[in-house]
Design goal:
The chain has 12 helices and 19 strands. The chain has about 425 residues and is an alpha/beta fold. A hairpin with a 4-residue loop joins strand 6 and strand 7. The longest helix has 19 residues. The two termini are about 45 Å apart.
Amino acid sequence: MRKIIFIYLFSFITIQIGFAQNVKIKSVLFVGNSYTGVNDLPNWVRLVGASQGDTFDVTSFAPGGRTFQGHSQDPQLIMLIQQRNYDAVILQEQSQLPSFPTDQVETDCYPFAKSLVDSIRANNPFAKIVFYMTWGRKDGDAQNCPNWPPVCTFKGMNQLLHDRYIQMAKDNYTWVAPVGAAWRDIRDTTNINLYQTDGSHPSFEGTHLAALTIYQTLFQKKINDNCFVGSLTQTNHKQIKNTTTSIFNDSISNWNHDTCKVPMQFEYNMVKNLSGDSCFLTLNAVHKDPRADYHWFVKGAGNKYSKIGSGFSIDSFKTSKNSHFYLKVKNACGTDSSMQKFVFVSVQSIKNTVKLKCIETNIGKEISIPNKSKTGSIELIDLQGRIVDTKSSGNTNLYTIPKVKSGMYYLFLNNTLAFKLLVE
């Protein structure tokens, strides 16, 4: 498929410095192009905020037609980011690019979105980063329609923009300002004209919709009756306000991926068996938060933990059976930790093998444990040495099968291997 081309729409760069007060968000940087520059969106957001009792200054860097790739390679923007610890940054991609075919978006958009996020967090790890979701053209993208039919209509183009902006937020642990989602609902339910005559750029009503959505994303506050409305009628303002509020509040899980949870879960896999008592493991964090610090430890003599490395993973670490690993993670929310025991099963012949033919019908099934003492612990271990089930055996010699994937498992009684469990 031929590469889809851009229509570059140029406007003036607007740099607006407002009035800073001692509030949580005191400075906001807008990075975009003409969709940000037209009608001076950054200043409109500032005026909406001031009318709601939130004062902050805004800075805008919005050359017409600029892409994330162009921004990420612009020394002027990089210097702007490094000169100040902005409390929030709004990122807007070129208006067509996120709606292009998946392979093109993955090559020309996603890596540069990440590059910008990384640059911002390198300067201020806890800046609130928001992707400004734009909207479909009034009649679709006529220029690219012949090569890419999904953008031939507003609905198709808008849905692709919606999905790709959410993906960027998920990939980078950020927020989304769902302007495109609110834009769709206003089109569907009112006669308000959100476009300029080019069928692309926002009218004053379109800019007001974007400003209210971005403000609510930044401050998560209900908009009161004193809101700045510019040249809009009160009727149009109320319809836009109600729609943006409904979209933001009803689907907040779609827009907020800047979660403040400490992601301490981890997993490990055996990469090489050295002997009956040792092997090489890799350890990997399940959730990789770029704002967090990851530190790995292993328990040694005297129940003391020694550090074995930092980062999202540890590669090829030599360990022995029954080792205890400890992951400590620190981010903006605080510090948390997780400990897991690694059980290494030697390759050996075990006479006692229990076979289960059907996973679903055997969930909850009780099997008899041979030669079991009346009390003790039970651990079910997979072939990678991961504990998938653990419990006290109590006074029964029966074990209830948990929901597990097909494969071979080892059942330990009081830390002693009892038999293999084959789930087919």
